[in-house]
Amino acid sequence: MAREITQRQLRNESGEIMRELDRGESFLVTRNGVPVGELRPIRRRQFVPRDVVVGMFAGASHIDFERFRADVDRWVDQDPTPRA
User: Which of 25, 27, 30, 32 is placed for a possible disulfide with 39 were both Cys, Cβ 3.0 to 4.6 Å?
Assistant: First the structure.
């Protein structure tokens, strides 16, 4: 759950708040008692080995690439001409 901090605390204690973000802490920022924003750490990318990824897609349905291309051409406007 996000810890509530005021706009003033964010300004005055930004260094400590950044360190807590690094440790995974989240914050709800308020101004005059009204929530105005949320600070939360971004998710770090995680390496997934190739064989694990291949295994995840092993049971996936076959894709008919010609049919897929036809569907894309039918539904997506791919005209490279600028609109403005």
Answer: 27
